[in-house]
Amino acid sequence: MELALSWNIALKMLAGLVVLLVYIYLSGKGALAPISALDQVGNIVLGAIIGGPIYNPDVSVVMLLGVAGMWAAMLLGVRYLSFKRWSIKNVVDGKSIMLMQDGKVLDRNFSMARISVRDFIMLLHQRGHPNLDELRNVWFEYNGQMTVVTKGDEAMAIVVIENGQIDYDNLAVIKQDENWLREEIERQGFTLEKIFIAEWHDNGLWIYPYMQQTS
């Protein structure tokens, strides 16, 4: 009886290890260093799905493989869609929210970021910024961290195209519209569909096309 139970546990541990190895291989290093809330929670749930049934004799190896494989497949599917469509990534992970721009506090954005003034000041102090007067731009990132640019720093680039898709919110940040962007793209000899990344920096649009056209 004990020998059979030991074999059952060993087989389920092996099955769980196989699922984890396949998931890490297919998802890349993002599985080992998650940067979004969904990645972190997804990994925790996957670990619970694999770890919980190992010592439960009522859960078979096939059931463990099926449930863990299904959850891993759903995580991979969401990750793939988020990579292909930034609009989906915005829904899944959220967006970076600007809390300060050109030295001005954007008070309306604090409710969007769900961060209080007290927490905002605490995070700034933890990063070594004693007051707001020295800051130029501050973003609250979707992973809960803050990106800070002081008045003495070089301005950060703003991504306006990602995977051939226009980021209209970032266009508004640089005070431009889609017509301007398309004219600038055409002037540089590109089409929107062939652009992997385009960013606004140093009063110019810097375009990085796909090395090869994707389907």
Automatic annotation (TrEMBL):
Transmembrane feature ranges: 6-26, 61-81
InterPro entries, per the entry: DUF421, UPF0702_alpha/beta_dom_sf, YetF_N
**Primary localization class, coarse:** membrane
Which Pfam families would you find in this protein's record? DUF421, YetF_N
Q: Which UniProt keywords apply?
A: Cell membrane, Membrane, Transmembrane, Transmembrane helix
Membrane topology, record value = Multi-pass membrane protein
| Gene3D superfamilies on file | bsu07140 like domains
Location(s), subcellular: Cell membrane
Any one cellular-component term (Gene Ontology): plasma membrane
**Similarity annotation:** Belongs to the UPF0702 family.
Q: What is the name listed in the Swiss-Prot or TrEMBL entry for this protein?
A: DUF421 domain-containing protein
Taxonomy, top ranks, is: Bacteria, Pseudomonadati, Pseudomonadota, Betaproteobacteria, Burkholderiales
